[in-house]
Amino acid sequence: MITIKDFNFKDKKALIRVDFNVPLNDDFQVTDPTRITAAKPTITKILEDGGSCVLMSHLGRPKGMVDPKLSLSHIVQSVSDILGVKVKFVEDCIGEKAIEASNNLKPGEVLLLENLRFYKEEAAGDKEFAKKLAQLGDIYVNDAFGTAHRAHASTAIIAQFFENKKCFGLLLATEIESIEKVLNDSEKPVTAILGGAKVSSKIGIIKNILGKVDHIIIGGGMTFTFIKAQGGSIGDSLVEDDKLNLAIEILNEAKSKGTKIHLPIDAIVADAFDNSANTQVVPIDQIPTGWMGLDVGPKTNVGFSFIIAQSKTILWNGPLGVFEMKNFAKGTIELGNAIADATAEGAFSLVGGGDSVAAVKQFSFEHKVSYVSTGGGAMLEMLEGKTLPGIDAIMN
Ligand code: AMP
Questions:
Q1: pTM of the prediction?
Q2: Cystine design at 338: which of 208, 305, 326, 349 (Cβ 3.0–4.6 Å)?
Q3: Is the confidence at residue 353, as pLDDT, over 80?
Q4: What burial class does residue 73 get, using C-beta atoms within 10 Å of its C-beta: 0-12 exposed, 13-18 middle, 19+ buried?
Q5: What are the structural domains of the chain?
Q6: Would the CB of 293 count as within 6 Å of ligand 1?
């Protein structure tokens, strides 16, 4: 894998695709700077080499036209503060102004371009647009994992204009290595925990990891499709009736491929989808009508924690219950504790994909796991075994 470590950037201008799609409040202040902080090591290395950085990113979904609310000018101060460098800004990402700003950039300086998605050509993967962007730097660096699954102009198409002058930034390289470490280069036993709402959104991952991991722990709403498929009573729990056959297929395929699937054995059930609903603990396959499973039960917690304690490599995607409500967060918290303990004992743990990252942050497990991925959709697609356009464009 070719990264910025393979280049000396002295007197070179790095054109870096970063993912600065950060949340802003009503006063246009950055409320979570994680994505900016994550790009800092790459930018710092280039500046320390004696190079300069032209940063390009999108922010929100402006639908191919200028939307002042989604201007990257709002984040210039935050980026400057985090990098410790006064960042320059240009109110376009292509054309004369952008070229002039890039030409004027001196070693040690950083320039942020305006939102790429103010042009519809960005998301369309337009080659001419990519060529215009390519004029702004000498070496192309992709450090935007969050958009690596998109074949956009700045994430993939642009790479063709930088033969032998394209590489991964440190963030993207670490993301790729972490997933490799779990799927292909892993210390056994490997355990994947898949939670969340629906089987349908995780099916691609399950299929790809069957045979590659030793254990799959299933939790969250998708549990009940598996339980119903095997003849259990699930009351009013979430279920995908069109996926019952698929659930049986997965269980059979797991057996033939040597992966053990672990389903919850008990559940905390509620008489309404509400934090203040009445609750009781029942066996997972004996949920009465009028009750729905919203978290795993205490016996399940013990069983899952036991498997995790034995694991040397752990992948966690998706909460085990409706963690947003305090009364149904326990399973997810206990799982996080078990993963944190295993990590402290030397296991490698990777957490990623949408809500599990939110859960990890909410319950402060962030620094107790080995790596928290910055990409939701991109990580899911990699776990599904897909080739991501942004990664392919650098590799090939
Ligand atoms: P996903 O985006 O697929 O990872 O799903 C995350 C969502 O699944 C969270 O908002 C959880 O509240 C929800 N979830 C987890 N367990 C359950 C459950 N037993 N019933 C309904 N929703 C659930």
A1: 0.90
A2: 305
A3: no
A4: middle
A5: 4-173 (3.40.50.1260), 186-383 (3.40.50.1260)
A6: yes
